[in-house]
Amino acid sequence: MRRTICLGLAMAMLLSMVTISITAENNTKQISLTEATDGAEKSFTYKIGDSDISIPFAQKEADTLNKLGLFKGTEKGYELEKPVTRAEAITMILRMVGEEKDASLSSGSRNFSDVLPSHWAYTNIGYAAYKGYINGTSDKTFTPDRGVTGQEFVKMLLSAIGYQGITIAKAYEAGIKYELLTNNYTKLAVSTEGYSLIRSDVVGICYSSLLVKNSDGKFLKDILAQKGIVDKEQLESLISSESDGETESFAWNLNKLMPTDKNYMFSPLSIKMALAMAAVGADGDTQNEILKVLQIQNLDEFNELSAKLIKEYSENDKVKLNIANSLWLNADYCKDVDFESSFKDTIQKYYGADSSKVNNANAVESVNKWVKNKTNGKITQLISDSNFLAYIVNAVYFKGEWAEQFAPEATRKAEFTDRNGKRTEIDFMNMTGNFYYYEDSSVQMLKLPYKDGKTSMYIAIPQGRTIDLDKYIEKMESKRVKLSLPKFKTEYSTKLIDTLSQMGIHTAFDADKADFKKMFTEISENVFISDVIHKTYINVDENGTEAAAVTGIGFATSCMQVDPPIVFNADKPFTYFIRDDENGEILFMGEYAYAE
User: Fold this and answer.
1) Quick one: average pLDDT of 125-146?
2) What is the largest CA-CA distance in the chain?
3) pLDDT of amino acid 195
4) Cβ distance 446 to 481 under 8 Å?
């Protein structure tokens, strides 16, 4: 994935004399496709105007889908350079969403005059038309052997994944919105009028679809595993090893699972420290799963690193960066239970966390007061009820000024276009100067340092979220850049149990299998993580950045439910009154007898 020029390409590769040649015109845009080969490595060259873009075959993606049984070759191999017909396209899509067998058992209920029962894809086309995945090229025809366009393919695939109302005219926008089109090359293939897809394009789009969520928020890869179409462990293993053995960090893996329909901000450091403290009190599979997801090889070493970071950050006099931790035990939840002394000692030594006992009456106020204090009032509430055995809480507060501040008088109104194409006029800060900068066909990235010279904000415009941007930092060079950046403020709240489960933590949330015996004393019932709450705040303006994050890990057990609860169900007429308990006066009285 890189831009090249004609001369450089000619010197680097031997161009095949017998090649695929596809051209399309869209106003002044021209695209020509020529296969090129350099030994075992194959690529295409797209010519757009005066620019050449070298595009690799989707060989690795094809291998992965083939091993999963989702993509088949011919007697000649994958034939990635071969054009794809509309009939082949819907067949590939039905296999991709796990419905190929269902289609084979159908009778092809939609009749097209040019798709007779003898046609090899008759049942697939009829089934897909009946399900609403495809449309004909007219009321009576399907044109099965015509090449499929990118817009048609995206419409078919997203409809099969479960999205309603996708049209060919809006297919490209939908592909961007649902993160099906995650790089410049699939975007180019789909957005270009008159360009028929080849098998390499289809493989790239299908591979990306594994990480597309359906309308219920479930990843296609997980749906395929649940149906038994693919082996879940094999799928996860193949996807995780896809990038030449490079492993993305916990932060970037978590970022992939953040929402696409709202602004968000989270603190990987806060979440990682809170879960690491939980791991100190865990054992067996529970601890192993937590550490694997966090990518912590040695917990003792991470504890020491945490202590070092907390100390170093607190001593930074150029920016304010404070990390605070605390343990909370609800004495009313289970009588005579306490934190194990060895657990408390470790958490206090390395994370500076004091242990506090609360009760049902003061738990919510006490925990939230601590959170408000440690986040400088930016986050005022973590929990809303006292129904917990214990909480581990981490708070991070940051405030830093830019090394070079934006001039307030340079702030101007300008349009911001959101993910759905909506344009809104907002305030943009503006500055021209030398910044560390990197750009290629998949990302633009700029470094914006704070006054301490150690801390920076990186602003990136990637083509897709599944990019680990850390790898571009060492490639950044000082460039003169005209920067325009929105002023923005985001407050975000999420519960992370489902997300962390997708990442590989399971037993910690299981009431029967969780193992936190190293954390508590005098408890016979099993303890499990009942909640992982994460809240954040960030404000970016001309002066700098103020940000806060808090992570709370709640623990519960069944020991509180010794007696069955009393049922009070006011589902029949009832009387109510409001009383001044100081003097006994009833202020208001009434009866509710009719539903309004």
Assistant:
1) 92
2) 99
3) 79
4) yes
E-assigned strand segments in 28-109: 29-38, 41-48, 51-56
Q: Is 144 part of any domain?
A: yes
pLDDT tens track for 102-115: 988 887 666 789 99
| Token output for 555 | 């623990």
Indicate whether 387 and 346 sit together in one domain: yes
Q: What is the DSSP letter of 170?
A: T
Shared domain for 82 and 52, answered yes or no, is: no
- Domains of the chain: total: 4
Q: Which residues contact 423 (CB under 8 A, 6 or more apart)?
A: 415, 416, 417
Query: Which secondary structure element, helix H or strand E, spans residue 268, and what is its range?
Result: helix 268-280
pLDDT confidence bin for 18, thresholds 50/70/90: very low
pLDDT of residue 30: 40
Share of the chain above pLDDT 70, in %: 80
Q: Which two tokens stand for residue 69?
A: 């049984």
Paired strand residues for 3: 53
Exposure b/e, 419-451, CB count within 10 A at least 16 = b: eeeeeeeeebbbbeeebbbbeeebbebbbbbbb
Reported residue count of the chain is 596
**21-57: pLDDT as tens digits:** 333 333 333 444 444 444 334 555 554 444 444 455 6
3-state class of 362 per DSSP?
A: coil
On whether both 478 and 501 belong to a single domain, the answer is no
Token pair of 435 as six digits = 């910044």
Which residue segment(s) compose the domain that 149 sits in? 69-240
| Pair 78, 179 in one domain | yes
- One-letter amino acid of 357: K
